[in-house]
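Query structure, 146 tokens:
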């Protein structure tokens, strides 16, 4: 049986994503050399990335189960299935599947993470996909729960 989407739960998780995004944005105000030489900043960004991916995955799994009765096996599958159903754009799906890979690298092999690269990509256009995910999900939930 397909149930409804819990708007409060989704909004709470989206707010967690935005809070983690704020942490990353505040760190990106530093220069790259300051960032890579400060272990506290590095760990803050790593944790924020993990938190963003975890919360976005929970949002996606909730929508997929609640609206479509679909259970997914992996983090990447969540974003693939959301895109297939028009909840998020294909561009956001691809971007989040990359973030899942980064999350897995951070969680399982943190010593091989290139923090300077993370800084440069985030400073460039890397955070755009996270903002777009939040916006697209909010629009979807608003439309589907009226």
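Result returned for the query:
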């Amino acid at each position: 049986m397909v149930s409804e989407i819990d708007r409060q739960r989704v909004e709470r998780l989206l707010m967690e994503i935005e809070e983690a995004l704020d942490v990353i944005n505040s760190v990106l105000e530093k220069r790259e050399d300051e960032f890579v030489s400060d272990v506290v900043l590095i760990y803050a960004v790593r944790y924020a990335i993990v938190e963003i991916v975890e919360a976005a995955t929970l949002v996606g799994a909730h929508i997929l189960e609640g609206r479509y009765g679909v259970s997914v096996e992996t983090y990447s599958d969540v974003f693939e299935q959301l895109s297939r159903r028009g909840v998020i754009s294909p561009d956001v799906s691809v971007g989040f599947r990359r973030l899942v890979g980064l999350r897995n690298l951070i969680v399982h092999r943190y010593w091989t993470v290139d923090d300077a690269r993370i800084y440069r990509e985030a400073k460039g256009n890397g955070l755009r996909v996270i903002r777009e995910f939040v916006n697209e999900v909010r629009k979807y939930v608003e439309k589907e729960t009226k």
